Amino acid sequence: MSIDKTQAREALAIIESSRRRGFSLHHYQRIAPMLVIWGVAWLVADLSLQFGLATSRQIWPPVSLVGTLACVTVAVLRARRKRSDEDGAGRGTAARTFAVYGLVVAFMAGLFAVTAPLGDRQVHTIFGLAIGLGYALCGAWLGWRLILVGAAIMALSFIGFAAVRDGYAAYMAVVGGGGLLLGGLWLRKA
Amino acid sequence: MEGPDEVIHQSTRLRLVATLRGAPDGEPIEFPRLKAILGVTDGNLSTHLTTLENAGYVELDKAFVGKKPRTQVRLTATGRRAFERHVTYLRTILDA
Predict the structure, then answer these.
(1) What pLDDT, in 10s, does the model give residues B30-65?
(2) Which sequence spans correspond to the domains of chain B?
(3) Which residue of A has its CA nearest to B87?
(4) CA B53/CA B75 separation, integer angstroms
(5) Chain B contact for A51, CB < 8 A?
(6) Model-wide pTM > 0.90
(7) pLDDT, block means (10 residues), chain A with 190 residues
(8) Nearest to A30 by CA among A94, A80, A74, A88
(9) How far apart are the CA of B22 and the nearest CA of chain A, in angstroms?
């Protein structure tokens, strides 16, 4: 079997695109359930606000806690399933997932402490922008679909802040929660 | 200079091994995912996996999750080395 330069170049191009695609799809599968979980959490929290069932301070802490626990559970189950032959598989994943969410919470708490006092609309929009930016930045390494999801959430959050007056919580429930939910399903289908 | 790896160089197997190599930490990929990524039929994928398995390049882990069968495919250390050797060989041709 002999391979000339053209065939070698084509083979290397196939290898590169397959590796990149395999890498992206692998991470899409990992991240998709997290997007769905946070999409549902966001929908529940903002619809509760819209219909006056709770205030931000009442609804967001428990919803965030449940969302974080759900994400840790998904990550641990996945780690165990992938490495069922390794003792303690999942403990490292749980610790990493908690650490990431801990850092996000610390960052947001610090940000709001520095910029206080902020109204509900501003807090909401900053959340939308920050979460969108986070996903878009991840997408720079993991795949263009995440960039698109993140950029869409950022843009729609800002548009809502600038243009939507009444029903802002409902708008953010649809844009933020619905956006993450649909984004997660879109990644899962990739 | 070593020659090409004839098991890996076939186009579908080349994509298959490159895709498995793209999974971080050598994590396995499930059979239906591989099938979707490569755009091949069950039978076609099975044939290529058998060839790679016989060469010791991949491991197939078959199990039941509940009542559903699940097959996971992982690149072995031998497969990883063979793939890297093949890539080096292809680059050597371009550099010659």
Answers:
(1) 898 899 888 899 999 999 999 999 999 999 998 887
(2) 6-95
(3) A12
(4) 9
(5) no
(6) no
(7) 86 90 83 92 91 84 88 82 55 74 84 83 88 90 89 93 89 90 86
(8) A74
(9) 4
